[in-house]
Amino acid sequence: MPLIGFLINPVAGLGGTVGLKGSDGVAEKALMLGAVPRSGERALLMLNQVRRKDILFFTCAGPMGEEILKKAGTSLINIIHHPAPDTTAADTREACRRFLSENVDLIVFCGGDGTARDVFDVTGSQIPVLGLPAGVKMYSGVFALDPSAAASVLDNLESTGRRDAEILDIDEEAYRSGTLATRLYGIARVPVLGEKIQPAKNIFEEQDEERAKDEIARFITRVMLPDTYYIIGAGSTTERIATHLGVKKTILGVDVLMNGRMVAEDADEKTLLSFLDEKTPARIIISPIGSQGFIFGRGTQQISAEVIRRVGLDNIIVVATPAKCRATPSLHVDTGDPSLDSAFPESLQVISGYSIARRKNVGR
Amino acid sequence: MQTKILLDEEEIPRRWYNVLADLPSPMDPPLHPQTQKPVGPGDLSALFPMELIRQEMSPDRFIDIPAEVRDVLTLWRPSPLYRAKRLEQFLKTPAKIYYKWEGVSPAGSHKTNTSVPQAYYNMKAGIERIATETGAGQWGSALAFATMLYDLQCTIYMVRSSYTQKPYRKSMMHVWGAECIPSPSTKTKSGQAMLAKDPDTPGSLGGAISEAVEDAATHSNTNYSLGSVLNHVCLHQTVIGLECREQLQKVDDYPDVVIGCVGGGSNFAGISFPFAGDKMTGKHKEIDIIGVEPASCPSLTKGMYAYDFGDVAGLTPLLKMFTLGHDFIPPSIHAGGLRYHGDSPIVSRLVHDGVMRAVAYHQSEVFDAALTFARTEGIIVAPETSHAVKAAIDQALECRKTGEAKTILFNCSGHGNFDMSAYDAFHAKQLVDYEYPDELIKQSLARLPKIS
Q: How far is A239 from chain B (nearest CA, A)?
C-alpha cells in the first residue's frame, strides 16, 4: 500500500488571474480583486483520474487536503495536522514534518514555486515530491505537466524512477517590478514517468541569445499589421519586440500594443477581454516558458481560455530563440479548458529568427 | 534488367543545350544595379570573359563544347545512369526510378561540369586569378580543381557556417591549390560592412557573392565566377540531362517525372532543361518537372517573382527571379548549398510559366529519405541531394497508391562523404525543422503599395 503525503496550498495561483504575478503575501488583495481559488479544483481533477484504490493519504484537515480527498470519494485518509482557518506557509512545513515521521513514499502538493520551496525546506531530498501545478509561477522542475500526468505517477508509483529536480524561486517583489530574478533553492527528488515531468525552467543570457532576440524582434515588428491589437505575453523575447518599437514593456506582465503604441500595460484577463469586445482584429504574441514549453497556462494566466478563443487560434504567434527551442522539445498548452486545448493544431510554427521559423509539436 | 546504363566517352555531348532558344518569349533582361537599365556585355566585362558573356546572352539553341573542355570532362563523364532496383523493391513501387550519378567527378558533384569550362574561358582571356564564393564547399572545391588545371590562382569566399561545419571541403580546396577565406571577411568592404552589422553572423551565399564580386571588380587581373544561378552555368550543366536522354533511350525509356534539388538551380537546370525543351516544343507535353527546395529557404514555393539583387550588398545586376529578398539570411541547415535567397532566372521563369513546379521539404524528412537511399542503393548522398531523393521516393510511393508505373528520373548531384556530421546530427535527433514564416510575411506584404 503506497503512503502518500497530500497537501494543497488553498491560496496558490490566486494572484495569476488578476495580474499579480504571485500570491505570496497578496492573497487577500487577490481575493478582493475577484480571484477564485483554483488549487482545490486542480487537485480534484487529479484525484478523479487516479485509478488505484489502495493509497493511504496523509493530509491536513479542511481546505489543505481533507475536503478535496473526501470530495473525490477517497476513504483511506489519515489527518496529521489541523491548521488554523487562514493557512500559512508554516502549516505546509508542519504537514511535511509529519509526512516525514510517517515515512510516506511520496509527497504530492498542489501549489506553485512558493509551495515547492516550503515543502523543500522540510523534506530536502529525503522523500520524493511531486508538484501539481496550481501556482502562478512554476519554474521549478518538480511539477507534473498536468493533473492527469500526476495521476498516472500515482497509479504507477512502484515502477517510477527518481531523478534530481531543481527547486527555483523568484523574488516576487522583483518579479512584480519587472525583474526576472530566479535562484536555485535546492535539489529535490521527483518520481520519473516517461517524459511527463516538467524540467526546470532555463533562463538564457548568452550573447547569442541577445542577437537572436533582436532578429526575432526585427522580423515581428516588420510583419505587424496596422490597427490590430497585439497582446504580448511575458518574457524577455517578447519584451525585445516592444523595445524595437520603442515601447517599454513589463517583462513579466501581459501588455497590449497597437500601431506601435502601448494601449494597456500589465493587463489582467478582464482588461484583455474588454479590448476583445470590439470588432478590431487581435493577435497574441507569446513565448514558451523555458524548457517546460508551455505557451498557455503557466505564468500567463491573464491570457485565459476565453481570451484565446476570442483572438482565435490562427492569430497566435509563438516566438522563441534557438537556444530556448533546443531546450524545449515540444510546446504545451494547458489553458484549463480541455476542449480549447484539444482545438490547438498538432504543431505550431515558432518564429526563431528573422524570417526563420521552426515547427514544434503541441502537447496537451 | 541493367543496373548501370553507360555511354562511351565518344558519346559525351559535343554541344550544350540552350533552353532560352525554346522559350515562347524572351526573358526579362538583367538590369544594371544603378541605372536599372538592361545590362549590356560591357557592363559584365569587369567580371567575366567575353565568351561567357556571349553564352549568357546567346539565343542559339546549341553551343559547341571546346575540345579541350571535353577532354577534361572525360575524367568523369559520361556519368552513369542507375536504375534504382533495390530502392524500388524496398518501396514496393510499380514506378521505375533512375538516378544520374554526378558524385563520380573529382570534386564529388556536378559542379565540375561548369567550373572546367569557366576556368578554361578565363585562361583563354588571359585572366590570372578567379574569385568566387561557395556555400557548402562543393562549388569551391570544383573551381579549385578547374583553376589548377589551367594554372590560375583561385580565391574562394566560403560561407562561415559551412567553413566551420565542413572543414574537409576547405582541405580539398587547399590540395588543389586554392585560397579559402571564411565569409564575411575583413578583406573586402562588403565583408567589413556585414561584420560591422553583425560580428557573429553565420554568413550567407548572398554575402559571399558580394565579397567575391567586389574582389574581382577591384582587381584587373581577376575575374569572378559563379557556381549556379546564371544562364551560362545552367547551360554547362545541360550535359547531365543530354546524357540522361541518351541513356534512357538505350533502354527504350523516357521520364514521366524529372527531379532535382534547387539552391541556385544549376543541377536542376542541368538534368531538366533538355526535357523542359521537349515539353515546350510539344514533343513530350505531359512530363512533370519538379525542383525540390528546403522549407527553410523556399524561394520557388514561397518567394516573390520579382527583380532582386543576386547578393547581399546589391553589387550584382538585378535579376528577375523568385526571391525571398536579398537581405534574407537563411538558417544554417546542413544542405548549405541550398541556402540561397533567389534562383536561376531561367528556372524561375519556367516555374512561373508552369513548365516546371517546385516542392519544399523539412530537413529531417530529407535525411530520413537519404538514409533509405543509403541503405538500399548504398550511396550516401550530400544533404542537398537528399532533397531530390525525398521527392523521388514520394513520387514512387504515390505510384504505389495509384498503381501507375511511372518513370522517375532524378539528379543524384553529389556525395555526402564530407557531411557525416550532418548524418550524425540526424541520428542524434538534433536536426531542426526550419521553415519560412510565409503567412506572416504575405499578410504584411499585402498592404504594401505595388511598385511597377
A: 20
